[in-house]
Amino acid sequence: MLYFNCDYTEGCHPNILRRLEETNMMQTIGYGEDEICASAREKIRAACGREDIDVHFLVGGTQTNATVIAALLRSHQGALCAETGHINVHESGAVEASGHKVLALPATPDGKIDAAQVERAVLAQKNDVAFEHIVQPKLVYISQPTENGGLYSKAELTALHEVCAAHGLFLYVDGARLGYGLAAPSNDVTLADLCRLTDVFYIGGTKVGALFGEAVVFVNRKAGEDFRYHMKQRGGMLAKGRLLGIQFDELFTDGLYMKISKKAVEQALRIAAVCEQAGFPLLAKSPTNQQFVVFPDGALEELGKEYVYSYWTRVDETHSAVRLCTSWATKDENVEALCGKIRALGKAFS
Amino acid sequence: MLYFNCDYTEGCHPNILRRLEETNMMQTIGYGEDEICASAREKIRAACGREDIDVHFLVGGTQTNATVIAALLRSHQGALCAETGHINVHESGAVEASGHKVLALPATPDGKIDAAQVERAVLAQKNDVAFEHIVQPKLVYISQPTENGGLYSKAELTALHEVCAAHGLFLYVDGARLGYGLAAPSNDVTLADLCRLTDVFYIGGTKVGALFGEAVVFVNRKAGEDFRYHMKQRGGMLAKGRLLGIQFDELFTDGLYMKISKKAVEQALRIAAVCEQAGFPLLAKSPTNQQFVVFPDGALEELGKEYVYSYWTRVDETHSAVRLCTSWATKDENVEALCGKIRALGKAFS
Amino acid sequence: MLYFNCDYTEGCHPNILRRLEETNMMQTIGYGEDEICASAREKIRAACGREDIDVHFLVGGTQTNATVIAALLRSHQGALCAETGHINVHESGAVEASGHKVLALPATPDGKIDAAQVERAVLAQKNDVAFEHIVQPKLVYISQPTENGGLYSKAELTALHEVCAAHGLFLYVDGARLGYGLAAPSNDVTLADLCRLTDVFYIGGTKVGALFGEAVVFVNRKAGEDFRYHMKQRGGMLAKGRLLGIQFDELFTDGLYMKISKKAVEQALRIAAVCEQAGFPLLAKSPTNQQFVVFPDGALEELGKEYVYSYWTRVDETHSAVRLCTSWATKDENVEALCGKIRALGKAFS
Amino acid sequence: MLYFNCDYTEGCHPNILRRLEETNMMQTIGYGEDEICASAREKIRAACGREDIDVHFLVGGTQTNATVIAALLRSHQGALCAETGHINVHESGAVEASGHKVLALPATPDGKIDAAQVERAVLAQKNDVAFEHIVQPKLVYISQPTENGGLYSKAELTALHEVCAAHGLFLYVDGARLGYGLAAPSNDVTLADLCRLTDVFYIGGTKVGALFGEAVVFVNRKAGEDFRYHMKQRGGMLAKGRLLGIQFDELFTDGLYMKISKKAVEQALRIAAVCEQAGFPLLAKSPTNQQFVVFPDGALEELGKEYVYSYWTRVDETHSAVRLCTSWATKDENVEALCGKIRALGKAFS
Looking at domain D2-7+257-348, which CATH architecture does it have? Predict the structure, then answer.
């Protein structure tokens, strides 16, 4: 079986493994205060073009989202997000478990919300005569790229930034797949833009070359002042913190993070093109490493004999959409094999 | 100004005031373990026709909802409810503050959800390959009558009961306005039915004759075993618990609770009829003490000079819906005055 | 049986009952925004000699403590308090349920902590190399008078104020029995002092003449900015808020609050004097309405046939301490009867 | 500098690194449901001699404690533990952040509590007239070995088991350093005993050979039924779960876990013996990899020029205790160097 179901089926980029070996018997202090973490922070600051940001390393995405949101909000405040947002649907209620309501907004097919929706939600609460009986929206959570492969443009992100600034909300970007977004051909948002337009975002490692790990960037340093307490309290402060430092230090050496992201996106776009040529339409346009393709159920059954995909949603009585992912680890030969299979299915099911 | 905006604008039924005076210098133990509370519990058991239920008294509705739900759920479990449900929109995130996600379902115009929706939600989670990443629906919250004046029929309630039983969910009924529901002409659900069909429900006092107070009925006694701890922890265990006992003891003497509810509903239905006759349509049919009426904005402005209403929602560019409520305290003469005014507005704005 | 076990065995001061009746059919808006609440707030401001304070009304003490503390703290912060403090031992974990650790400090026999203890605790955390792994002390909770009858002097309170100010901690005073503290002969702390020396405190009503109710005074208005959200979220925003307004408006008319407190304290001190004369020592000196008296177990058995006391603690194999309370409602004739009984026991058990 | 301050200064045992490399490009499903995790679970079951236990893998200790405790307790219940217990002092309030009070009990110098203390605490709550106002003790948390190097004997553990069983409490053992406890010469508790005597315990990996990772063993499978939801919700479900599988699979191959633990304990005991011979007493007897040694401050200053230790506590005006740790990674040559230094200090400071 070849796995195209998600972007975390393999281990990590060989550079990281090599570095783990080289440093294995080195002695360091714990909890992310070692020199390798310091070096990784410096490289991330350099990649962002900013010296005035704080960088923290956590282990996984759900942990990062819950910790950041708990650190930013008071108990009467909630997080606006797309109804398809990860915190709303796939984190077992982690945000609510820390006491905060997720305020879900209708999303576009590719998983985005816009500034006008945010403003309407904020004003609806603010102007309600019973506003104190309603959770106060205080943070906007978006994913870049989204869970459905969508990508916010610089203009969209700027509009979100402005509405947040106007109403005193935090803007937080979940970058679990940030590399694949940055590397998308149509992308016009840089790390520097994220620093300019958000309060906090994270650079995903788990899905982009690392064994695990997410680098949280607090641009709003005041808001992140006591963040290490929250990391510890939410179980996200790794004892051997250097493991996170090692991984991000390697990913941000010689542009590795972007290089591996770019390759995965090219592979994904190739798969998408082949699907369309073969008569299998895309559920939504995605310029990233995730592709959402509609197949007749018979074709899916056939495909599933050799390829692992991620079932996404039923489209109609005889069609379903599935997710096909590439990653830093996807081999070209496997992409070719998959494309061949899809072409064959195209002929068989047209 | 005459107030028709809500059902808690006055104090309490005179019988309660009288009893407060009579018992004022009596000495009792605290926290609801006195003999007056015991008497009130007995009367509620009698009204329900059930000896095998546990009755607890709390102060207010939001407190009751948050406490019951926190007592019933484990941290990975959530509460299904109508998107218009009180816990979803008007409790400042009280349920989330105790760690639980409110799982909102689309509601009918009169604020109801049905068994099929519940089942779909339960199965969607249960059958998802990533079910452990999704909050587990474990409780269904409904209001009888709903926040929008709707009333569940015995058949609808039975269907909800069955789907809950089939999937191991608790069924919890918020009865903030239960009296007005029980007294509705079209109602076919009794207290005994509620005991048969739910795990826990509450009989609202605050809006139905009391100064304050809600009587929680645990039919599922196992689930309510440690409920008094939760009452104390959530600030709902009144030191002078007898105040709650006094109120419910009076409300459940000689059918007072039903008598005052019935009168208020009759008044509300009279107002509704006059509105329709005057050309002001109802937003949704309500057989209860709350009526939701659509007026031209000009008529509302005029009405607002003498009557306090509760603004509900914008209907179109020139019309809005408002809520008009009666209660146990509404005077017939005020109803007549309001009806006269509405008729006059009908002529002026037709 | 005559009850001396606690200070909430009766209803309320007759003035309040009268006012409830007078206002019963008056229509007001809800949630504490009515004119009676406004009047009560003004009277409390006048009693404090301060216009620049915010006053909120809640129903009970545990609710008040949990709500104030949740409103003031972020999730990595905790509340320092005496190990005998109410939040530490008698609130079913309400503070922890809102996510905060209670950091208990050893208390004096009369239930107090001092500034030096607070400073040591703060510095121990601040100076620990692993300070981020330790809950950050951010609030000091004290009760005035304490749960054990102790009273902070102005000097002690000033020292606590200074240590809190020096280290950026909030000072919060639980005044469940504040009247009885203010009225103690040895007291030198005024409401104005509390305003000068604390961030927030509450004036207890439940135990001092009201049916229920506590008036929270935010001197630190910035910290209390969004407090009404928290009140609603924690179930403490009473629908018929005017009931709280009525009670505090009456208690703060013509010095009623102080007048009834003073009488109760005099009664308690009389009981204490009689106990000592009769050979029953006090567990700790209390200048307030609560007295803690050590009796031989045989005497207690005898006493318990006619008087209800509150068992406090075992002193040795043959002696126990009990709490005897007076309140605004205690009748002089009952005090006399109790004193007579104690004298008789003194003879029998000496 | 040579590090003896803690047991997580290096990476991982070479066998794990090798396996990471071998499996790096292998494709597996995520979240711990892969075949390597399955194999590791089997090996742990075999080491425990039990087929009927559930094994889950988490990333770190604080995360594990908070997740297990949140999964086991309802909101009115708390965890009894030694006042020196990790959950009480070094987890930034993680247990409280999930809503539960840590009920601290006085500990022995080596960090233990006993069955009699537990029983007294349980009965004190149960028998209090206001028991519902007091957090219900429902779980006993102990560490084996303790944070202070103490080790529970089979008899002590059996007594704790019995008191927990008698009163319906869960017994949970934090095994962050379990290997070093199992390998202690004086130890008489086996993994099979832990299975027999506890409801749940964890086998620490982070400090015993792994890069990170703790294996939670639910003997009480009913209590652990929905544990994976809690893992996800608390951020502890690693996407590439196989990383945890790989580490425990290696640690439980050919007795590696015990072998490396044994060596570290021998080194620690050698250091302890040298300290005592050199005239530096031990703060408390520890048969494990942690040693707590009292030095004159001058000797510590000298020692600190070449060796990193963990400052523990001030003993008197001129002496302090420090912690010296060994681990699976400690080199014999470094132990020899340290022992030489201590002997030299012994001469200089006697």
Answer: Alpha-Beta Complex (3.90)
